[in-house]
Amino acid sequence: MAWNPRNALLLLSFAAVFLPYTVASSSLRFNLHTQTLVLTSLPLPHPLTWSESEFETSESDPDSSATLSLPLHHIDAISFNKTPDQLFNLRLQRDASRAKALTSMAAKAAARNRTRARGSGFSSSVISGLAQGSGEYFTRFGVGTPARYVYMVLDTGSDVVWLQCSPCKKCYTQTDPVFNPAKSRSFARVPCGSPLCRRLDSPGCNQKKVCMYQVSYGDGSFTLGEFSTETLTFRGTRVARVALGCGHDNQGLFVGAAGLLGLGRGRLSFPTQTGRRFNRKFSYCLVDRSASSRPSSILFGDSAVSRTARFTPLLKNPKLDTFYYVELVGISVGGARVRGVSASLFRLDPAGNGGVIIDSGTSVTRLTRPAYTAMRDAFRVGASHLKLAPEFSLFDTCYDLSGKTEVKVPTVVLHFRGADVSLPATNYMIPVDSSGIFCFAFAGTMGGLSIIGNIQQQGFRVVYDLSSSRIQELHETNAIAYIAHMYTCIRVQTQ
């Protein structure tokens, strides 16, 4: 199939929602050169506040449209006995592995066509879900009948839903007991040769004629086991016959979670599987981890999509169906377009090279090197009044802000096709230690793929409406404008 941006028109929209926020400027309109950054220290993880009484089962029609809402927590919340500095460094280590794997996987997909495994085994260590490394945010829901509640990582960069299952050949340590399929009345193994089994990129088959799956990740983590269907329970809403991997051989750095809920665009992702139930709509809002007034959240169903919106088309890569590609056309720093940063630097070509994806599991936004260098240099000019500090990890632009409570920093605006996103200062100037060092939270990559990470998405509701076929156009007065105590919601829509 030839590449065509209209094959799957995915739209990004914006609507303002009032909530407490840490940006102190009176307005962040696009013509301003600076905004105020209120300085905060590295946050401690907030304690988990799950209440099992929220998860009582509903016997509603499983085929009817429904809406469900779940709280999200950053993976640091179940990383015990770590200081804020240690947690941040671990986050950067995970991030480096994931970004490297995403870039490598995109390059390989563009270089060759995928092939299916033949016979009863696996011909590749990476099949459905591909190689990314685990995500950064998790939620809690029930698996099986009766429901056993577990923590699961959510990830827009992968497709396969899976969790650890007993008996374990090898299982990493998780917070909850390992799921035992023998104790669930709704567990069913998928037979070899079934249409569901064939959805896997490279399905395997064991001696009992049960479909086998395997997913490997960029940090060396993997899961291997039986492909099955099971009932999942989300805050009283039961979703039956969800295809998932029941992993008996698992290894990785999943920090206590039982498995992963894939939210990608592929055939086996949770949004695709439950399209009829939730109208192929979901959204998440990742709140700054230093803000305790409101938790991060994810919504499934019609209520995930806001009515006021401003859109940009999102592209589909025919070589790689998992990722959500957006069309970035330019960047402004300090109220002026950055010279040398044009749409051509971010173009997704017909072979599947390049492009820009939105990813919930990558923390730091990576831009192709020429674009990053031009953007960084423009920021350094606008922040020349700040005291420079040595480089820190992947960050090459850092400042010593110790002893200060707030500073002025240049504004940063990401220009998408038909929509501009003005970032709050806390989304690109972040603390990296406990001594007052702040760094410009972008990085360059030598690969062609650029990634919009979750630090830059903080405070934005990212909404994926995969069922709508119309483009909504709004009057200019609905264009995005940030003021104090306001955050933005982003909506994504496709046909």
From TrEMBL:
This is Aspartyl protease family protein 2. The active site is at 155, 359. Keywords: Aspartyl protease, Hydrolase, Protease, Signal. Residues 137-474 form the Peptidase A1 domain. The keyword Signal applies. GO terms for biological process: proteolysis. SUPFAM superfamilies: Acid proteases. Residues 1-24 form the signal peptide. GO terms for molecular function: aspartic-type endopeptidase activity. The keyword Protease applies. Belongs to the peptidase A1 family. It comes from the Eukaryota.
